[in-house]
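User: I'm writing a short report section on ligand binding and want a predicted complex to refer to. Could you take this sequence and alpha-L-sorbopyranose and write out the structure as tokens? A short remark afterwards would be nice.
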Amino acid sequence: MTEAVPRLGIGMVGYAFMGVAHSQAWRNAPRFFDLPLRPDMAAVAGRDEAAVSAAATKLGWSSTETDWKALVSRDDIDLVDICTPGDTHAEIAIAALEAGKHVLCEKPLANSVEEAEAMVRAAEASSGLAMVGFTYRRVPAIQLARQLVADGRIGTVRHVRAQYLQDWIADPQAPLSWRLDKQKAGSGALGDIGAHIVDLAQFVTGESVTGVSAVLETFVKERPVASEHSGLHGTAGTETGPVTVDDAAIFLGRMSGGGLATFEATRFAWGRKNAIRLEINGSLGSLAFDFEDMNVLHYFDATESAAVAGFRRIVVTEPEHAYVAAWWPPGHGLGYEHAFTHQAVDLITAVAEHRQPLPSFADGLVVQRVLAAVEESAANDSTWTPVTKES
Ligand code: SOE
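Assistant: Sure. The structure tokens for the complex follow:
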């Protein structure tokens, strides 16, 4: 008889867009991957009793709490999954870590460097393990890109060209949401999507951003207040309110290996829905990725004869590629939600093996310091601003 797989009690705080994506991941992880622990979707927390109950039923959670503190103190919860706006990340994560729970926290790690530092300290002091949700690291094509760089296939990194382009607030009538409120989100396009490309640039190259020169802009300063919200979208009401974050963030950076980088994060790029574009030019070749064609990685090998060299379009759906063997036959492709499942799988495995899951809170802090340097530079006429290593 096979032995039962031990249980890992999961408690999730928040159940909007990210909560839905995480729920799907906890549900699917044991259905597609052989896991050392069985995630048990024990409880979801939200302030509105009726709404959180409806979400629990729809998403597959066994019980609900209307106070996250009650969820964190439950004995049947081993891991707290934080899917709330940034202004609550530090408080929930620190309380959970102090209670000895493992933590998965959505990105960006916090709304400030100080909060992120406190979270790192709490993680270091806890018996719980902590991970930040830079989910796109778990796209198989991104894993391949990192591998190719690590294997020296593009040589020394000269340029990183990173863009995250969306258009969901390009319409000035798109209503306000917490993502446009500095108090709740910390920053706008910068923290929401710029954080992802900073993390990806560092993850794929294995290097860090050492300094930046930045501009931030808020194009639409006043928007309708939403009368209703669902996912990223809402219904505009009659009142208006201020947008208190950046709509777009553009910055230059230097990489620790001597290369140069450009970053562009905007939610005003009509027609671009979730275009995460990463092009890396090295001394021996180039890589190019676009999330809107996420199962593909383009690779140019400059060591080949010029007569036959050209960008190779690698379809990253072979069982040899990271995570793919657990899913579908070659060519059948993965989507947005699969990276969340991979994140759950890697976290469960790290917990079972008692080792630090990556990206750690310390990795989240590194990104937070880049975001802070971008804000400082933009506030000082784009002055060159080093990314601090420690406060
Ligand atoms: C909105 O811009 C958003 O939902 C981000 O918050 C997520 O991190 C990104 O994965 C998709 O877009």
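A remark for your report: The chain is about 30% helix and 30% strand. The chain has two domains: 7-136, 139-358+367-379.
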